[in-house]
Amino acid sequence: GAEYSCPQLKVEREILKEGFHRDLVTRVSIQDFVEQVDSCRILLNETMPSGLFMDPFQISSLQQHHLVEAIVPTSIDVEAPEYLSKEHTALVYMKPDETCKDCYISTVPVHARYHRPSAEVYEMSIHIRSPQLLMRCSKDFPPRDCTKHPLIEAPCGSSTEKECEWMDLPYTLVKDNTTVKVPVGIEQHGPVVCIVTIAVTLICTGMLLRTIYKHKQKST
Known about the structure:
Elements: E1 8-16, E2 21-31, E3 40-48, E4 52-53, H1 56-64, E5 70-71, E6 88-93, E7 95-96, E8 103-112, E9 123-127, E10 132-137, E11 151-155, E12 163-168, E13 172-177, E14 179-183, H2 189-219
Parallel strand pairs: 1-13
Antiparallel strand pairs: 1-2, 2-8, 3-6, 3-10, 4-8, 5-6, 7-8, 9-14, 10-12, 11-12
């Protein structure tokens, strides 16, 4: 029967917003699995490249307002530039998409890191790899037709340490707009920026000293 067929998954991914602070949106639609879909959960194992990161403190705050459900390592250095950072993983739990039947959606904020100034390019392109997609259902799971797909232990949810069995499922990526372009400082501008910064600092210091001197003269 249909309840034992293996789910066919289609995935769409896109980056929203501009600048250094973006939203990563993933949509999953499930076919051939209608009977169980209401009892299922989908978990994305995301890998953020060194040029991007998820802020664990922001994610924690959003979770308190039930806007995001995710597990992000608290060891992430949110201040470090790209060339001093490593890629990191994050577990993102999807929720049912009310705008679409048998669909799931997740929206998580991602942030770009500052890159080392370059002599050749004005911007860098950072691509987010496709995630590992895990699924579990509370009834008739795993389906008979899916025994070839591996079962993996992962947290049942973001607020529990309890682990559940999830099935690692393949999917068809029908849309993948997950490249982030980040502006890069121009190396040749370095000396100019230093000179201007020093000049402005000296002018401001001079004006401040002049004001203090005038104020002292008035006082006497």
